[in-house]
TrEMBL record:
Signal peptide: none annotated. PROSITE patterns: COX1. This is Cytochrome oxidase subunit I. It comes from Flavobacterium faecale. SUPFAM superfamilies: Cytochrome c oxidase subunit I-like. Keywords: Electron transport, Membrane, Respiratory chain, Transmembrane, Transmembrane helix, Transport. Residues 260-722 form the Cytochrome oxidase subunit I profile domain. GO terms for biological process: aerobic respiration; electron transport coupled proton transport; respiratory electron transport chain. GO terms for molecular function: cytochrome-c oxidase activity; heme binding. GO terms for cellular component: membrane. The chain crosses the membrane at residues 48-68, 115-135, 147-168, 265-284, 316-335, 347-366, 378-398, 410-432, 452-470, 477-497, 509-535, 547-566, 586-608, 620-642, 668-687. InterPro entries: Cyt_c_oxase-like_su1_dom, Cyt_c_oxase-like_su1_sf, Cyt_C_Oxase_1.
Amino acid sequence: MKFKTKKLFFKPKVKLITLALLFFLQPIITFAQTDEGVSFFPNKSIGFIGILTGLVIIAVVLVLFLVVKLSSNTNYFLDQKSQIQKEKFKKYITNLNESDIEVLKKKRNQNSNRTSFLVLGFLSLVPQIMSAETAPAKREDLFSQPGVLITLVLIFIPLFLALVYLAAKVSTGFKNYVNNQKINEAKEFAAYISETENIPSDADLDEIKNKLEYTIKPNELSGNETASDSKGLLKNISTETNYRFFASKRPPIKRPKIDPELTRLILWYLGTAVFWLFVGSSVGEYVGIKFIVPDADNYSWLSIGRLRAVHTNLVFWAWSTIGIMGLGYYIVPMVSNAPLNSIKNGWKALIAVNSAMFVGAISIMAGINNGGGEYREIIWPIMAVWAYGLLLTVINFIKTIAKRTTHEIYISNWFIVASYIFILIVATIAYIPMGQDGIGETIVQGYYMHQAVGMWFMFSMLGVLYYLLPQQVNKPIYSYSLGVLAFWSQILFYTVIGTHHFVFSALPWWLQTVAIVGSVGMLIPVTSGTINYLMTMKGSWSKISNSYSLPFFFVGIIYYFTGSYQGTAEAFRSTNLIWHFTDFTIAHSHITMYGIITFLLFGSIYAIVPRLTGKEPPQLGVGAHFWLALIGLQFYTIPLMIGGTLKGLMWAEGKPFIDSVVLMGPYWLWRAIGGTLMWLSHIVLAYNMYKMMRPSTDIDVKEKAFEIINQDLEANSVEPKI
Ligand code: HEM
Ligand code: HEM
């Protein structure tokens, strides 16, 4: 499609958008002009100004997005207008389906937003007023004052929200306009096709029908003959694809047998999980920024010590946990071939875990916590509510499995139920103070941390993969026995490796050795699991490009292998001596919790949600999500691994601690850049979720035209409706 820039620019809406752009860019340009050497980023205010600039950039990106969207929609119409209408209608006729043909045959027999822009205009005046009132000479002092900064932030927030609101309004207005145009076109097409002379002859219609019904014989396309398409085999080759560079994705097929109530429940689990991912990673992003700009703020609620715990608890116990629960509610009844035991208890559990996380996050920020134990900072009464949600769920699952109509309990259900039992026991032990004095607390801490990641997140996601991977590649799992080996060997080894977090600590030497040996033993389940998954995918690699979920699964499996081998490498005394206490561990945490768990969750969401709602995610959106997350993760982890190793070696040489902090500066900057990309990918995911879940407003011209003809037929005939 041609881009008709000139015409586009003179459109009033685009002019207003340009005005809006100017409104947001002007302050940057105005303030960026240096005055007597005064910098745009005076030392103390860099944090706030940085955030403001970030928000402005987001706003600009939003506006640009809108402009691109407007221009592509406008192009659509310019292009449409330039085509001869009849040609287009004829094209519709060559793409009829069987019911359309029936309607046409019957027809032959019978014949015998507005959106307001005033706000935008007003907004465009504001920069002038602002600039007029700014005294350049005093800018440095002014921007160092917290009061001014806070006022600016407070002014900016409503403006930013107003812009987002406006963008949404413009987008909906334009969509309505497009849809009205389509309805008009459908009416014209219906009128055109209602004329007897425009309806193809019965013979032609029968020919199209034959083409539709035709199936190819095994030897049909052999030989040297030129292809004549009398059988309609090439009908799917279309010049009207949206994105010609990408393989088209396999459309989802809605699963009719899932109870709509259960569908609603699962969508709520997955929806709230994505919400927590956004909140949790926004906090992580801010903590990452604080590593570069430590004095970005000085509020106790936003101190690194508190926000770090908010981040880890939200991504663990809210995003990953609620996501895993949602997947369980889909998979357990599905592989048991039985309805969920109690949907009501499913809702109770959802409310319990969500409210616990909400109160938990606020309490950590307020300074109410459980002390230093990592991942168990939230106080026990709140975590008890969370655990109640998990208990209700596992009882629900066990009762559902008990009612199964299949003979065997499928391997996924083994993994899923076992993981709930493990995490409930592990959390109970971690929260009961018994035996947790002195070194005992350290032992419990190591046990708790690693059981949580290994026997809850990893174990349950392996179970999910045993169901979704074969389903997505449409063939059975490569080896059930390898699955069973992975199940038992993971239980054997993972449960004894907790103390590898505290190598060289005051813990008994033999206990550390057991953990190190167990860490090596972990290579058995990891290798057998990886082989099983990759062999299941073998021969179906081409399916990766036309699936929404398989690319995420593939990345998750590769990280499962590499991340776990990396973990084994970290457990040895010689390596732990260098890497422990450094950012290398942070890289490992994200390679595993993000590269494995989060990527598998992403893939599972794209596999399940379209089956529940029957709506595809936007293809470009899924691509953007995938690449932003993957590239972001590389920028996050690789610099931290390099920086962490150099830092460890520096300490080994006895260099001053502060030198290692200076050394890490650039690596932390890269982490913040990578984190930003990951964070952006979560916004795209939220948008994709919305697209998969919202009621459809798009109109298909051909479908609409046949709906009109059908209504007409119905009104004028006594025959039953088809
Ligand atoms: C935008 C995405 C994210 C960013 C920018 C981010 C950033 C951070 C930062 C800055 C830290 C503190 C590191 C330190 O103390 O040195 C951290 C810790 C951590 N994050 Fe993230 N994070 C993100 C997403 C996630 C996700 C999705 C998960 C898990 C599902 C996760 C799991 C963790 C864990 C486990 C830690 C503790 C690491 C350790 O102590 O070894 N993060 N993150
Ligand atoms: C063969 C499997 C694995 C082994 C042997 C292993 C080993 C290790 C070791 C030795 C550490 C401690 C590093 C240190 O503090 O010096 C560690 C940290 C960590 N691992 Fe793994 N790992 C494995 C797989 C995983 C998986 C699958 C996940 C997540 C799903 C994971 C998540 C983490 C996290 C979050 C930490 C940081 C804990 C903290 O806050 O200190 N690991 N791992």
